[in-house]
Write the structure tokens for this entry.
Amino acid sequence: MLQKKVCLLGDFAVGKTSLIRRFVEGTFSDKYLSTIGAKINRKVIEVQGMPLSMLIWDLVGGERSASLMRNYYRGAAGAILVCDLTRLETFNSLYQYAKNFREINARSRFIVVGNKVDLTADRIVNDARLADLARKFHTSWYTTSAKTGAHVETLFLELGRQMLEG
């Protein structure tokens, strides 16, 4: 069985842990628990008829931890860069996360994600911004909701597919 390391990157409270919980456990909680350092989850999925074990690293967000977190990026085959669609500053941080990740893993794949798409009335980051950032890094993008589960499974399956393609 193939095993691939995946990092979830983004600022504090964008929903990285919630996306992982939705994908791995099928659950959601409104209670905010700040990640300290890194937490690792595992889920086996099937991609193109092959089992793929994803080791999903939930990494603490924020600028203060950026240099430390770069050590956690090593060996990652993929990443999911997450912003909160209701907070523009979290989107603005994604460029630096992408740049830092690519410096460590030049050939690894990542996907840009705008989370909390269910909060339509509060949304600030539009699809055009996500698409533009994804285009700059030659990757794909999604909007998700950890709360409703919208596009969460699809996102992880697509990253799995991209990682297997190399």
